[in-house]
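Marked as duplicate of an earlier ticket. Keeping the data here for the record.
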Amino acid sequence: MKSRDSVIVRTSIIGIVANVMLGAFKIAVGLIANAFTVVLDAVNNLTDALSSVITIVGTKLAGRRPDKKHPLGHGRIEYLSTMVIAAIVLYAGITAGVESVKKIITPTQADYSVISLVIIAAAVAVKIILGIYFKSTGKKVNSGSLIASGEDAKYDAILSASVLVSAIIFMVFRINLEAYVGIIISLFIIKSGVELMREAVDEVVGKRADSEFTEEIKATICSEPAVKGAYDLILHSYGPGTFVGSVHIEIPETLTAKEIDLLERRIAEKVYEEHGIILAGIGIYSFDEGHDEMRSEVYRIISRHDGVLQIHGYYANEEEKVLSADVILDFELGDREAVFAEILSQVQQAFPDWTVKMTLDLDL
């Protein structure tokens, strides 16, 4: 089985060759037929080829071995290369829009031939095939750049089809829609660039991990009989497929230090083997078997508030009379802090002899 990097490089090379050939044919057709939108479409193909080159360079740089300064590798370079691609796409889209407006102000007459239409139609078919190939390969190797290239190829096929339709309309009805189609093309290109940039920025800033993926990890952790719950799972991405995480587990307070140590080792090994996640830290929530009525009442008070997503980490310290719990409130609440303050006050009123120490936790 070929490595991830070699698959990405091979797929990108195929994209470069295909896009350069398509771009060359379209430029020739556009110049011969004096068709601005065909030349514009060709520039879009050449931009895609450049994007594939950057994908290869980014993949190579991201694949470098860890070193003293970067102990977790260089995987995040792939996100930076995606941002560079997005910037190129945005520049191409804005330039295309400006040129299209100029053509509306100062129109020129195109002169299409049957051969030019055949070439454009062939380009549509090639782009559809490339789009399917890029997306399927990107999903197999978890490459955001390839998936984005696949989406871009799909849009390119639609845009090339619009150029073809405008050419047919001109040949049949002598109505010149070229510049207006150019504006539509430019808007599609800009939209693609914005989406690419937003996705890359989200990865760099730190976006929420896929909920289905995190639930699978929690299920693996909770498969250990001693674990009553897994909470506060945080995953830090250091490139596609490279995650370092931490989690809190709820376990009986009767477990010894030796038992907890062995449990944590088993969990870390399981999570790495099944999900490829390095669990750098496993925190502990102690679960006591007593105070069931108090626990039920605390949960009832908290749960009656809107926006409460979860309560965990509950513990009643009988010796110090301290009641602890973590409360997760929905980010959509207008004022999470105010709701939490009200919860804290109500729980304190219900148990005046106890010191209530609760944490407003994050919805991770």
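See parent ticket for discussion. Residues 169 and 175 are 6 Å apart (CA to CA).
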